[in-house]
């Protein structure tokens, strides 16, 4: 079926209203009518060609909440009317060690992204959530908890970014055992960063925001941080030498890692979530002295995404969403690039 969407005609070009085709349901597929779609900085990297590819025109969007309207003949767990979420993945082999362990995001044959990825069966390129409908196999749907399931509510809109920003920050917080008293720093308080602050605080951590400016200090403290530091101030890192167990780095631009690494405690880890195209230079000496690590983490598996959104519902956590009509997508992109987002744009898909 043909459905309305916004798509980028080429690298770096403005998105425009268009149409894409959604496949007929396979036996294990559901058709979802999309209600909300978040704008992730990864959408912007992909549209701008920061991560080069040839799949234009392309419809981004991997933070999706909507309602199941039709199910394939073999669907087991979902029915029309169910409110579901889709994050960054729509398929994987489900058979390798990673998939069996719930790490579909690290599928050994490559997981299938919600957009800009070849479909595993027919090779067509997947198209994302800036559209009125999407087809997805049921194993990659997340059930939206009651607290967020009224699709017309602000809560549903604000929960939408959890499908990427939420799981991408929840997964490393869990992997590195954040809990009561953990000392966590969050670098960059944008879409991912502000959710990371809320999640880490809810897990009992002592949270420090490392933002490039002071402008979001009151918000950072309100999200649960104990302190807020502006990293553009010379020598900001000196009082924090060897003091964080985990740094969650969400910055989308290249940053000198040295001052951040100096704030890692013995055995501490800085996990990179931001994906600027530039390479990063790290001194071995800065790591060796205190057995520090620099690591990376990519989104999270489906089971963990369900766990994350249930955790958020239980703790009253959502993103701070600024809802926009579809026609404002290009303005929103520029505002994200200008760090002028408080803290995630969410498209009202009914305006499409
Ligand atoms: P975002 O909303 O734009 O937030 C990024 C934040 O980084 C900004 O709010 C800003 O925070 C800081 N920042 C941006 N430019 C900066 C600069 N030049 N110098 C210093 N700080 C700067 O983006 P997002 O959606 O959270 O995504 C962040 C990054 O994570 C992107 O690269 C995205 O592609 C990546 N990502 C990765 C995964 C994964 O699986 N690993 C998943 C989703 C997204 P302050 O103003 O507070 O400094
Ligand atoms: Zn994302």
Automatic annotation (TrEMBL):
List the cofactors: Zn(2+)
CDD domains listed in its UniProt record: CAD1
What PROSITE patterns does this protein map onto? ADH_ZINC (PS00059)
Name all Enoyl reductase (ER) domain ranges.
10-347
Keyword Coiled coil present in the record's keywords: the answer is: no
On the tree of life, the source organism's domain of life is Bacteria
User: Which UniProt key words apply to this protein?
Assistant: Metal-binding, Oxidoreductase, Zinc
**Catalyzed reactions:** a primary alcohol + NADP(+) = an aldehyde + NADPH + H(+)
Instruction: Write down the top EC class of this protein.
Output: oxidoreductase
Gene Ontology molecular function: any one: alcohol dehydrogenase (NADP+) activity
Is Oxidoreductase among the key words of this record? yes
Entry EC no(s): 1.1.1.2
Q: Which family does it belong to?
A: Belongs to the zinc-containing alcohol dehydrogenase family.
Q: Any idea what this protein is called?
A: alcohol dehydrogenase (NADP(+))
Q: Which organism is it from?
A: Corynebacterium evansiae
């Amino acid at each position: 079926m043909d459905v309305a969407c916004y798509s980028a005609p080429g690298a770096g070009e403005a998105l425009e209203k268009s149409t894409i085709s959604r496949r007929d349901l396979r036996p294990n597929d559901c058709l979802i009518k999309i209600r909300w779609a978040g704008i992730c900085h990864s959408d912007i990297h992909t549209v701008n060609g920061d991560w080069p590819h040839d799949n234009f025109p392309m419809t981004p969007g991997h933070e999706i909440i909507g309602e199941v309207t039709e199910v394939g003949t073999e669907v087991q767990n979902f029915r029309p009317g169910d409110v579901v979420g889709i994050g960054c993945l729509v398929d994987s082999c489900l058979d390798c060690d990673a998939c069996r362990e719930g790490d579909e995001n690290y599928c050994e044959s490559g997981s299938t992204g919600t957009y800009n990825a070849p479909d595993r069966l027919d090779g067509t390129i997947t198209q994302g959530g800036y559209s009125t409908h999407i087809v997805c196999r049921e194993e990659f749907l997340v059930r939206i908890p009651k607290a967020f399931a009224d699709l017309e509510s602000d809560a549903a809109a604000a929960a939408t970014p959890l499908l990427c920003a939420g799981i991408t920050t929840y997964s490393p917080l869990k992997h590195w055992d954040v809990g009561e008293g953990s000392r966590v720093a969050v670098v960059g308080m944008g879409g991912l960063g502000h959710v990371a602050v809320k999640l880490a605080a809810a897990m009992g951590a002592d949270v420090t925001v490392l933002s490039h400016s002071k402008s979001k200090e009151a918000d950072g403290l309100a999200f649960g941080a104990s302190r807020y530091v502006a990293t553009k101030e010379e020598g900001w890192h000196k009082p924090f030498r060897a003091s964080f167990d985990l740094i969650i780095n969400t910055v989308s631009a290249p940053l000198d890692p040295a001052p951040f690494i100096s704030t890692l405690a013995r055995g501490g880890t800085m996990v990179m979530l931001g994906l600027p195209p530039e390479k990063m230079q790290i001194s071995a000496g800065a790591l060796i002295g205190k057995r520090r690590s620099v690591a990376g983490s990519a989104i999270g598996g489906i089971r963990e995404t369900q766990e994350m959104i249930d955790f958020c519902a239980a703790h009253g956590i959502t993103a701070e969403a600024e809802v926009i009509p579809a026609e404002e997508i290009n303005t929103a992109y520029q505002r994200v690039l200008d760090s002028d987002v408080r803290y995630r744009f969410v498209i009202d898909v009914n305006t499409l």
